[in-house]
Design a protein that fits this description.
Elements (H helix, E strand, L loop, with lengths): L3 H23 L3 E14 L3 E3 L4 E3 L3 E15 L1 H10 L2 E4 L4 E15 L5 E6 L3 E13 L9 E14 L8 E4 L3 E7 L4
Antiparallel strand pairs: 1-4, 1-8, 2-3, 5-8, 6-7, 6-8, 6-9, 9-10, 9-11
Length: 186
Amino acid sequence: MMSKAKAGIVLIVIIGALALVPVALYGTEVNVAKVNIGLNIGGTTAVSLSEFGVLQIPSFTAGMSGVQIDVESMNPYSYMIERNTARTQVDSPDSSSAALVEISIFFNLTTPSNNSITFTLTPGSQGTGEHEVTTLLGPEEGLDAGGEFHLTITITIRVTPPGFDEPVVDLNLSPVNRTFTVPTSG
Protein backbone atom coordinates (compact mmCIF):
# COMPACT_ATOMS: atom_id res chain seq x y z
CA MET A 1 0.00 0.00 0.00
CA MET A 2 1.27 3.46 -0.94
CA SER A 3 1.85 5.98 1.84
CA LYS A 4 0.00 9.31 1.84
CA ALA A 5 3.25 11.18 1.14
CA LYS A 6 4.02 9.08 -1.95
CA ALA A 7 0.42 9.40 -3.16
CA GLY A 8 0.66 13.19 -2.77
CA ILE A 9 3.91 13.31 -4.74
CA VAL A 10 2.43 11.16 -7.52
CA LEU A 11 -0.62 13.44 -7.66
CA ILE A 12 1.57 16.57 -7.90
CA VAL A 13 3.64 14.98 -10.70
CA ILE A 14 0.47 14.08 -12.65
CA ILE A 15 -1.01 17.58 -12.26
CA GLY A 16 2.31 19.15 -13.27
CA ALA A 17 2.52 16.97 -16.37
CA LEU A 18 -1.05 17.88 -17.36
CA ALA A 19 -0.28 21.57 -16.89
CA LEU A 20 2.54 21.28 -19.43
CA VAL A 21 0.39 19.66 -22.15
CA PRO A 22 -0.68 22.95 -23.85
CA VAL A 23 2.93 24.17 -23.98
CA ALA A 24 4.10 20.81 -25.34
CA LEU A 25 1.41 20.88 -28.04
CA TYR A 26 1.59 24.52 -29.13
CA GLY A 27 4.73 26.11 -27.69
CA THR A 28 4.67 29.30 -25.66
CA GLU A 29 2.49 31.23 -28.15
CA VAL A 30 -0.21 30.19 -30.61
CA ASN A 31 -1.03 32.20 -33.74
CA VAL A 32 -4.77 32.26 -34.39
CA ALA A 33 -7.13 33.94 -36.81
CA LYS A 34 -10.48 35.16 -35.50
CA VAL A 35 -12.97 35.17 -38.37
CA ASN A 36 -16.01 37.39 -37.93
CA ILE A 37 -18.90 37.04 -40.41
CA GLY A 38 -21.91 39.36 -40.44
CA LEU A 39 -25.18 37.97 -41.81
CA ASN A 40 -28.58 39.56 -42.28
CA ILE A 41 -31.70 37.48 -42.85
CA GLY A 42 -34.95 39.41 -43.19
CA GLY A 43 -38.42 38.71 -44.42
CA THR A 44 -42.11 38.86 -43.93
CA THR A 45 -44.23 36.46 -41.91
CA ALA A 46 -46.52 33.89 -43.45
CA VAL A 47 -50.05 35.17 -43.94
CA SER A 48 -53.05 32.86 -43.78
CA LEU A 49 -55.63 33.35 -46.48
CA SER A 50 -58.54 32.14 -44.35
CA GLU A 51 -61.10 31.83 -47.13
CA PHE A 52 -58.80 29.42 -48.96
CA GLY A 53 -57.19 27.84 -45.87
CA VAL A 54 -53.66 28.12 -47.25
CA LEU A 55 -50.56 29.99 -46.19
CA GLN A 56 -49.09 32.61 -48.49
CA ILE A 57 -45.39 31.93 -49.07
CA PRO A 58 -43.45 34.78 -47.47
CA SER A 59 -40.43 36.38 -49.08
CA PHE A 60 -37.02 36.53 -47.40
CA THR A 61 -33.76 38.28 -48.09
CA ALA A 62 -30.40 36.94 -46.98
CA GLY A 63 -26.97 38.44 -47.32
CA MET A 64 -23.54 38.84 -45.86
CA SER A 65 -22.76 42.23 -44.34
CA GLY A 66 -19.03 41.65 -44.01
CA VAL A 67 -16.10 39.37 -43.22
CA GLN A 68 -13.20 40.40 -41.03
CA ILE A 69 -10.13 38.34 -40.11
CA ASP A 70 -7.93 39.37 -37.20
CA VAL A 71 -4.64 37.52 -36.63
CA GLU A 72 -3.35 37.50 -33.08
CA SER A 73 -1.14 35.54 -30.74
CA MET A 74 -2.50 33.74 -27.67
CA ASN A 75 -0.89 31.83 -24.85
CA PRO A 76 -1.44 28.07 -25.20
CA TYR A 77 -3.67 27.82 -22.12
CA SER A 78 -6.11 30.48 -23.36
CA TYR A 79 -6.12 28.86 -26.79
CA MET A 80 -6.97 25.41 -25.41
CA ILE A 81 -9.78 26.81 -23.27
CA GLU A 82 -11.26 28.90 -26.09
CA ARG A 83 -10.81 26.11 -28.62
CA ASN A 84 -12.66 23.62 -26.46
CA THR A 85 -15.38 25.83 -24.98
CA ALA A 86 -16.16 28.72 -27.31
CA ARG A 87 -14.62 28.09 -30.72
CA THR A 88 -17.66 29.38 -32.57
CA GLN A 89 -20.06 31.96 -31.20
CA VAL A 90 -23.19 33.50 -32.69
CA ASP A 91 -24.39 36.89 -31.54
CA SER A 92 -27.92 37.75 -32.67
CA PRO A 93 -28.85 41.04 -30.98
CA ASP A 94 -32.11 41.59 -32.84
CA SER A 95 -32.97 38.04 -33.86
CA SER A 96 -36.61 37.19 -34.31
CA SER A 97 -38.12 33.75 -34.04
CA ALA A 98 -40.46 34.45 -36.96
CA ALA A 99 -38.71 31.73 -38.95
CA LEU A 100 -36.22 28.92 -38.48
CA VAL A 101 -32.92 29.90 -40.10
CA GLU A 102 -30.28 27.21 -40.62
CA ILE A 103 -26.80 28.48 -41.44
CA SER A 104 -23.95 26.35 -42.83
CA ILE A 105 -20.53 27.91 -43.36
CA PHE A 106 -17.98 26.14 -45.56
CA PHE A 107 -14.31 27.11 -45.26
CA ASN A 108 -11.55 26.28 -47.75
CA LEU A 109 -8.18 27.37 -46.36
CA THR A 110 -5.06 27.29 -48.53
CA THR A 111 -1.86 27.32 -46.48
CA PRO A 112 1.50 28.86 -47.48
CA SER A 113 2.67 25.36 -48.47
CA ASN A 114 -0.32 25.18 -50.87
CA ASN A 115 -2.22 22.57 -48.85
CA SER A 116 -5.99 22.91 -48.99
CA ILE A 117 -7.96 22.30 -45.81
CA THR A 118 -11.76 22.29 -45.81
CA PHE A 119 -14.14 22.27 -42.87
CA THR A 120 -17.75 23.19 -42.16
CA LEU A 121 -19.41 25.07 -39.31
CA THR A 122 -23.10 24.78 -38.53
CA PRO A 123 -23.71 27.36 -35.81
CA GLY A 124 -27.18 26.06 -35.00
CA SER A 125 -30.67 27.23 -35.80
CA GLN A 126 -31.31 30.94 -35.57
CA GLY A 127 -34.18 33.32 -36.20
CA THR A 128 -34.33 36.10 -38.76
CA GLY A 129 -32.40 39.30 -38.18
CA GLU A 130 -28.74 40.19 -37.91
CA HIS A 131 -26.26 37.51 -36.89
CA GLU A 132 -22.56 37.84 -36.15
CA VAL A 133 -20.71 34.52 -36.36
CA THR A 134 -17.21 34.48 -34.86
CA THR A 135 -14.94 31.46 -35.07
CA LEU A 136 -11.35 30.74 -34.11
CA LEU A 137 -8.88 29.18 -36.56
CA GLY A 138 -5.69 27.74 -35.10
CA PRO A 139 -3.16 24.95 -35.61
CA GLU A 140 -5.88 22.29 -35.99
CA GLU A 141 -7.25 24.21 -39.00
CA GLY A 142 -3.84 24.63 -40.63
CA LEU A 143 -2.42 27.77 -38.98
CA ASP A 144 0.64 25.88 -37.77
CA ALA A 145 3.18 27.96 -39.71
CA GLY A 146 3.68 31.57 -40.70
CA GLY A 147 3.01 32.98 -44.14
CA GLU A 148 0.18 34.04 -46.42
CA PHE A 149 -3.12 32.16 -46.17
CA HIS A 150 -6.08 32.27 -48.56
CA LEU A 151 -9.56 31.61 -47.18
CA THR A 152 -12.71 31.04 -49.23
CA ILE A 153 -15.98 31.19 -47.29
CA THR A 154 -19.24 29.89 -48.75
CA ILE A 155 -22.47 30.20 -46.78
CA THR A 156 -25.73 28.32 -47.22
CA ILE A 157 -28.89 29.69 -45.62
CA ARG A 158 -32.17 27.78 -45.33
CA VAL A 159 -35.28 29.56 -44.04
CA THR A 160 -38.40 27.73 -42.87
CA PRO A 161 -41.20 30.06 -41.76
CA PRO A 162 -43.81 29.07 -39.16
CA GLY A 163 -46.49 26.85 -40.64
CA PHE A 164 -44.18 25.33 -43.27
CA ASP A 165 -42.55 21.90 -43.14
CA GLU A 166 -39.93 22.62 -45.79
CA PRO A 167 -37.64 25.61 -46.33
CA VAL A 168 -38.93 28.34 -48.63
CA VAL A 169 -35.38 29.67 -49.03
CA ASP A 170 -32.37 27.46 -49.77
CA LEU A 171 -29.70 29.93 -50.79
CA ASN A 172 -25.95 29.72 -51.44
CA LEU A 173 -24.40 33.15 -50.95
CA SER A 174 -21.58 34.16 -53.29
CA PRO A 175 -18.22 32.91 -52.00
CA VAL A 176 -16.01 35.44 -50.22
CA ASN A 177 -12.23 35.29 -50.63
CA ARG A 178 -9.83 36.74 -48.09
CA THR A 179 -6.05 36.69 -47.75
CA PHE A 180 -4.31 37.13 -44.41
CA THR A 181 -0.76 36.80 -43.11
CA VAL A 182 0.32 34.89 -40.02
CA PRO A 183 3.69 36.03 -38.63
CA THR A 184 6.52 33.52 -38.61
CA SER A 185 7.44 32.35 -35.12
CA GLY A 186 10.89 33.14 -34.08
